[in-house]
Every structure is written in structure tokens, then in C-alpha cells.
Design a protein that fits this description.
With about 450 residues, the chain is an alpha/beta fold. The protein folds into 2 domains: about 220 residues, CoaB-like (Rossmann fold); about 170 residues, Flavin prenyltransferase-like (Rossmann fold, 3-Layer(aba) Sandwich), CATH 3.40.50.1950. An 8-stranded mixed β-sheet has the order 12-11-8-13-16-17-18-19, with helices on both faces. Helix 8 crosses helix 11. The longest helix has about 35 residues. It is globular and about 80 Å long. The protein binds cytidine-5'-monophosphate. The site of cytidine-5'-monophosphate (C5P) has 14 residues, from helix 15 and strand 16.
């Protein structure tokens, strides 16, 4: 009998290992349509990009490419310093327009001078912005083309600083940033990390992906304005003893990106996160938990007051049936762990009477659509976002791809950065949520009549 139990536990563990430890494969799926939805944020918008002289100027090439991919028109103004780091020809080729550099250029003034450029812009972004350029902005200088255009432009101005961390933290720069913020200039970043100068800290230019996301946030449709959204993210940790635990490879990036995209779309977002080393996105309230049970408790506490629940967390399906009080000694060659099923958070929320619009995630190694649709029905969800996982891709990666299913429809979101993918997912979700809300209203209106006639 005990042998039977052991075998059962081993099988459970094996099953569990397959679920949570399987390395990740990724099948590149076709992009059918969602570009058109994300395009709504930047599509047709005129982005005037200022590039100043910092080592990060090379990133402006990728930034232009991504902006154009979103359907934005891009014109570029470079300072002399910027031309030392990247050639105008590169940015001209990528933007599809001549790059502007000189304030006093009679040819340019006749075609598109600084006032025309300023009028043309729907938004201005200076990326990278050096410490010197920000100081010049504060002073209202107009002694080169970029500074003059900034002064003449009525469109929202965003600045993405990039500099050595000590320069970023210097009192002069802090003051300049605060003056610019008071004037309504959006400061995007900087990011933290290793710097070209060999130091580590705040001062890196935000990645193009994040800049596009932040810029699109300025134009966001408010697709989820007024909605309360609850997102779970990351792995959970299930203790074995005081120092060991069972967990999985989830980095939390997808869930954090989803929370950020929902906030960008105007929602009030709460993020319940397992242990990850990520910063919460802007305007997102973060609650940290460790175990599946703790995540369940917090989510169920919050679920009553929300409109949309997006369950991105890779919740451990099982936890050790008992947690050893002391560190388990390595005295035997084999060890058996008995595992006990964790509560299904998503299914519990979906089953709440009058509960929120529920969106699940499904990581599948095969039979993507049938398994995802099976979960949609079994857990009573409104929508499910599925991705194939396997070696190299899915967990712990920067990119992802999704197939999103709901009753009677689906959409494929091609492989791209998780921030961009999250914005696409939120756009799809907002559309389905609005439709389901309208349907609920119709049902509410119809029901009293049905009762009247009864
Ligand atoms: O059944 P499976 O674990 O594949 O379902 C995945 C979906 O269910 C994800 O959205 C995940 O966040 C959610 N889930 C949950 N609680 C669990 C297991 C999974 O909320 N205990």
C-alpha cells in the first residue's frame, strides 16, 4: 500500500515536473491581424524624433523602425553631436525622409523648416536626451534646430534621458528634470543597468520597445478607462523545507507587461505577483505573494470589486503535502515528495456569481487550440491566451507569441516583444469586454420584460 502511495506520489511529481519544469519551445505563429488594433494608438500619428549626442543614439535606428511598424510617420532632427554616433543617412533610410540638422538651412526652411516641423508633430520625443540637452531645454535655448523645434512645438514633448549614472543623479540634472516635469514634459526612463562607461545604475536609454509603449500610452484610446483590472504574474514558490521550494521558470515579464498595458489603456490595475525581480509598471498597484495559496487568498479578497481578471501567473499546480520544519538532511539516495493539489485561482474567480470578465493563459507543448479551448470551457473563462512552450522560448524570454481564443472567435498575435504583445492582447481584450458588457446590458433590459410577461 505504501509502495502504491509512493508510486502515486512519484507519478504526481513526474506529472508536475512535466507541467512546470519542461523547457520551453516556441513555434513562430502567423500574424493575422492584431497589428491593426495596436496601430490605433500610433497609426497615422506624426512622431518628431530628436536625437542628441550620446552613445545610445544607435538605438534610435531601431526606435524609428518600430514606430513606423506601428503606423506612425517619423521625421528626425539630429544635433551635431548625434551625427558623431550615428549617420543621418541611416536614420533617413529608416524614416523615409531627409534628416533635419541645420537651423539656418534655406533649402530646408523652404520645404520643412523648424516651424513646419513643430506644426507637423503630433508628439515630440527626444531620445536619447543628454544631460546637456535637458539643461538647454530648461533654459529655452533656440540656438540649434532641435532646441528651436522643441521651443516652437505645441505637441506633447517627451524626453528619454541617457547618461552616466552620476550625471543623472547630480543635483543639476535632478533640478532640470523636475523643472521639465513641472512644465508637462514627459520623462521616459531612464532604465537601470550596465552603462557604456562601465558603471551600473540609472541612466540607460529605455529600450525602443519600452519607448514605443510609453509613447503609444500618450495616445491611448482609454479602451479600458474606468475599468478595474486584476492581474496575476510570475511563478509561485511552494516550500519543501525552510530553505527549499518548488517553483517554475516564469520570469513574470508577460504578466507585468499585461498589467502595464492595461494601465496604459486607462484601467486601474492591481498586480498580484509571485517572487520575481521586476519593477512594477507605472501606475500599477503591486501586491507580492509567495505561494499559490497566498495568491488565491489575495485574489479572492480583491475579486469582488473588479471588472476584469487576467491570470498570467504560472501557478504551481501542486505543493508539498507537508513542509518539513527543519532542513531535510541528505542522508538517503532517494527521496519521495508527496504533493497536494493547489486551488485553481482562475477557475474560482470565473465561478464567482456576477464575477469579472476572466482571461486565462495557457502554456501548451502540443495541441494548442484544443487544449486552450478545453480550458476556456472547463474553467468557464471569457477568453484564453495560449502559447506553445518548449526549448528556448516562452518562459524567461523577451519575446512571446499568442493565440487568443474566445467562444466563436480567435486571433493570432505574432511573436514580438512582450510589451508590444501585451498591448495587442489588451486591445483584443478591451474589444471583447465591451461586446460582453453590451450583451449583458441587453440581457438586463430584456429580463424584466420576460418576468413581466410571465
Ligand atoms: O490548467 P492550467 O494550469 O494550464 O491553466 C492555466 C491558467 O490557469 C493560467 O491562466 C493560470 O494563471 C491559471 N491557474 C490558476 N491557478 C492554478 C493553476 C492555474 O489560476 N492553480
Amino acid at each position: 500500500m505504501e509502495g502504491c502511495n509512493n508510486l502515486h506520489s512519484l507519478l504526481l511529481f513526474f506529472h508536475f515536473s512535466l507541467l512546470v519544469f519542461t523547457p520551453v519551445i516556441f513555434r513562430v505563429t502567423q500574424n493575422i491581424l492584431l497589428n491593426s488594433i495596436i496601430m490605433n494608438y500610433l497609426s497615422g500619428k506624426h512622431v518628431l524624433l530628436g536625437v542628441t549626442g550620446g552613445i545610445a543614439a544607435y538605438k534610435s535606428a531601431e526606435l524609428i523602425r518600430q514606430l513606423r511598424e506601428q503606423g506612425a510617420g517619423v521625421r528626425v532632427v539630429m544635433t551635431r553631436g548625434a551625427c558623431e554616433f550615428i549617420t543621418p543617412l541611416t536614420l533617413q533610410a529608416l524614416s523615409g525622409h531627409p534628416v533635419h540638422m541645420e537651423l539656418l538651412d534655406s533649402g530646408a526652411e523652404a520645404a520643412m523648416g523648424h516651424i513646419e516641423l513643430a506644426r507637423w508633430a503630433d508628439v515630440m520625443l527626444v531620445a536619447p536626451a543628454t544631460a546637456d540637452f535637458m539643461a538647454r531645454l530648461v533654459q529655452g535655448r533656440a540656438d540649434d534646430l532641435l532646441a528651436a523645434v522643441c521651443l516652437a512645438c505645441e505637441a506633447p514633448l517627451a524626453v528619454a534621458p541617457a547618461m552616466n549614472r552620476v550625471m543623472w543623479e547630480s543635483p543639476a540634472t535632478r533640478d532640470n528634470v523636475s523643472v521639465l516635469q513641472d512644465r508637462g514634459v514627459r520623462i521616459m526612463g531612464p532604465a537601470e543597468g550596465p552603462q557604456a562607461c562601465g558603471e551600473t545604475g540609472p541612466g540607460r536609454l529605455l529600450e525602443p520597445d519600452a519607448l514605443v509603449s510609453a509613447l503609444s500610452g500618450l495616445f491611448n484610446s482609454g479602451a479600458l478607462a474606468g475599468c478595474r483590472v486584476l492581474v496575476t504574474a510570475g511563478p509561485t514558490r511552494e516550500a519543501i523545507d525552510p530553505v527549499r521550494y518548488i517553483s517554475n521558470r516564469s520570469s513574470g515579464r508577460m504578466g507585468f507587461a499585461v498589467a502595464g498595458a492595461a494601465a496604459e489603456a486607462g484601467a486601474q490595475v492591481t498586480l498580484v505577483s509571485g517572487p520575481v525581480s521586476l519593477e512594477a509598471p507605472a501606475h500599477v498597484e503591486r501586491i507580492n505573494v509567495e505561494t499559490a495559496q497566498a495568491m488565491y487568498d489575495r485574489v479572492l479578497e480583491l475579486a469582488a470589486g473588479i471588472d476584469i481578471f487576467i491570470s498570467v501567473a504560472a501557478v504551481a499546480d501542486y505543493r508539498p503535502a507537508s513542509v518539513a520544519e527543519q532542513k531535510i538532511k541528505t542522508s538517503t539516495d532517494t527521496i519521495t515528495l508527496e504533493l497536494q493539489r493547489n486551488p485553481d485561482i482562475l477557475a474560482a474567480v470565473a465561478a464567482l456569481p456576477g464575477g469579472p470578465f476572466t482571461v486565462g493563459f495557457a502554456a501548451e507543448t502540443e495541441g494548442l487550440e484544443s487544449h486552450a479551448r478545453g480550458k476556456l470551457e472547463a474553467k468557464g473563462l471569457d477568453m484564453i491566451a495560449a502559447n506553445e512552450v518548449g526549448s528556448q522560448l516562452g518562459f524567461e524570454t523577451e519575446d512571446n507569441a499568442l493565440q487568443v481564443f474566445w467562444r466563436g472567435g480567435s486571433v493570432t498575435l505574432a511573436r514580438t516583444g512582450k510589451n508590444r504583445l501585451a498591448r495587442q492582447l489588451i486591445a483584443t481584450l478591451a474589444e471583447r469586454f465591451t461586446i460582453s458588457r453590451k450583451r449583458d446590458k441587453v440581457v438586463n433590459i430584456m429580463e424584466p420584460h420576460a418576468k413581466d410577461s410571465a
